[in-house]
């Protein structure tokens, strides 16, 4: 008798950069660098404003989906989950707010934690970290925009 191994869920393949959408914010097509070295995803948050509500701390901020353009800027709000110390790519530590929001990539919609950071000098408005990818995607470092540019 031949035993069959239980097959692992087939993971979608993504490239080293992809476009990510945020249904909760009605923002489509933010360029993201896929970074398996980063635990948590991060997005460029411009002009953050913090406030207290009955259910906790909230932050409103602008998302600029296009680099070097404020034309498509959108002001959004989210509940702050926590604040976390993050070591950036330049080795500097900073305390960042963490939110949870829905993301859409390659037809997969999922909730993920994301830190808010000032990424105006960076080439990509977003970093897609490994906790958002775990159990969903594998990375092909030789490809990019596998779901369309």
From TrEMBL:
SUPFAM superfamilies: Acid proteases
Organism lineage: Bacteria, Bacillati, Chloroflexota, Dehalococcoidia, SAR202 cluster
Signal peptide from the UniProt entry: none
Domain of life: Bacteria
Domain named Retropepsin-like aspartic endopeptidase: residues: 14-146
Pfam families registered for this protein in UniProt: Zn_protease
Protein name: Retropepsin-like aspartic endopeptidase domain-containing protein
Gene3D superfamilies in alphabetical order: Acid Proteases
């Amino acid at each position: 008798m031949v035993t069959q191994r239980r097959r692992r869920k087939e993971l979608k393949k993504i490239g080293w950069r992809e476009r990510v959408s945020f249904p909760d914010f009605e923002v489509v097509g933010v360029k993201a660098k896929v970074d398996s070295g980063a635990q948590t995803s991060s997005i460029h948050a411009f002009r953050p404003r913090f406030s207290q509500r009955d259910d906790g701390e909230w932050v409103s901020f602008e998302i600029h989906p296009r680099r070097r353009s404020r034309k498509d800027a959108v002001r959004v709000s989210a509940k702050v989950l926590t604040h976390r110390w993050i070591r950036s790519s330049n080795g500097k530590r900073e305390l960042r707010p963490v939110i949870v929001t829905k993301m859409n990539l390659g037809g997969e919609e999922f909730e993920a934690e994301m830190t808010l950071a000032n990424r105006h000098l960076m080439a990509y408005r977003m970093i897609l970290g490994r906790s958002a990818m775990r159990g969903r995607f594998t990375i092909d470092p030789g490809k990019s925009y596998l779901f369309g540019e």
